[in-house]
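$ ./design --mode recover --in tokens.txt
reading tokens...
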């Protein structure tokens, strides 16, 4: 008999639900984005996010079941992002999941948002261990070593801003709309890397990251140029910034992959949609026996199919949440 897992994700600014079959096949995947509502504020406003989730969550769930042609009777487990994220936003998904699971007497499973981003890749291809995941999103920049399913060992992480956060902040400095990542990516392809922005390699052998110095360097460069009456093209700023971010992400991932004898490298999270990062990773790993994998763009940014994919593993490993499952904004992996 097939296994059907329901996933619910409301940790930030997307209200999402999905049903997957046998851990790896998407049956339906619905994402209601709130980006338009947050754009005029230049970033996600938590209170607005929570309200939108409340308005959307039932509709998104109804659409998910309608598209799948299934009912709650067919579902084996309800999985939901319990953290990290915005507390008010997470609470909407957690409560919807609890209500559904409790009323239909189904198992409830809490999923870590980053585990979800990693498991988005398993909807494309089976994992091979040891596996190294580079998770790059608006809230996270982490190198995670996995020796088996559900086993996450963080070997490097950002000490300040996340990669996506740096993209969004630099975009704001250039007066580009939120979220800035995709726009900077596009501009970078029309520009040249004419400014040598810093690359934070940190101590020898460290797999940690730091992007706040780079962000400040971009702001200072623009400020100084303005005072001198010098004008940089946004395209060139974007290209220079992007090459600094991409160089560090690719090099540290490569070194870690070699050091830990990795079989498969996966890139996950919103910034995994970045064209510059994708092509630089492909070039770097071209000659290697290491399998390199990116999720399709639609599965890079927040969605619930990835939560169900990670949830399916937890379900089969016997994990169950209690009925007092709560939103956990600072949850550790
Ligand atoms: O994973 P995600 O949807 O949400 C979080 O969990 O944070 O990632 C959103 C982040 C934003 O910072 C956005 O600017 C960035 O991913 N992003 C990109 C690109 N597409 C989205 N950054 C760089 N290049 C892109 N093409
Ligand atoms: Zn995310």
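writing sequence...
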């Amino acid at each position: 008999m097939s296994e059907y897992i329901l996933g619910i994700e409301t940790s930030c600014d997307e209200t999402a639900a999905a049903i997957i079959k046998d851990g790896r096949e998407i049956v339906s995947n619905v994402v209601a984005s709130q980006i338009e509502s947050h754009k005029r504020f230049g970033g996600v406003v938590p209170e607005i996010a929570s309200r939108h989730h409340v308005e959307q969550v039932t509709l998104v769930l109804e659409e998910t079941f309608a598209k799948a042609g299934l009912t709650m009777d067919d579902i084996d487990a309800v999985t939901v992002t319990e953290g990290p994220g915005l507390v008010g936003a997470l609470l909407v998904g957690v409560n919807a999941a609890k209500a559904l699971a409790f009323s239909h007497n189904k198992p409830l499973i809490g999923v870590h948002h980053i585990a979800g981003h990693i498991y988005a890749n398993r909807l494309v291809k089976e994992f091979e261990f040891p596996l190294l995941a580079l998770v790059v999103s608006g809230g996270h920049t982490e190198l995670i070593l996995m020796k088996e399913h559900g086993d996450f060992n963080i070997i490097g992480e950002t000490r300040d801003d996340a990669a996506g956060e740096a993209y969004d902040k630099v975009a704001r400095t250039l007066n580009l709309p939120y979220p800035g990542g995709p726009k900077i990516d596009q501009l970078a392809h029309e520009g040249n890397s004419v400014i040598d922005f810093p690359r934070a390699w940190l101590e020898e052998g460290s797999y940690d990251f730091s992007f706040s110095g780079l962000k400040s360097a971009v702001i200072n460069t623009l400020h100084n140029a303005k005072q001198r009456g010098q004008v940089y093209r946004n395209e060139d700023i974007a290209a220079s910034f992007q090459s600094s971010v991409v160089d560090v992400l690719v090099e540290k991932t490569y070194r870690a992959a070699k050091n830990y004898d990795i079989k498969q490298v996966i890139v996950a999270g919103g910034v995994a949609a970045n064209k510059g990062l994708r092509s630089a990773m492909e070039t770097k790993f071209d000659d290697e026996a290491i399998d390199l994998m990116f999720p399709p763009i639609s599965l890079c940014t927040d969605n619930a199919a990835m939560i169900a994919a990670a949830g399916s593993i937890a379900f089969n490993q016997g994990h169950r949440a209690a009925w007092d499952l709560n939103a956990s904004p600072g949850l550790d992996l």
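exit 0
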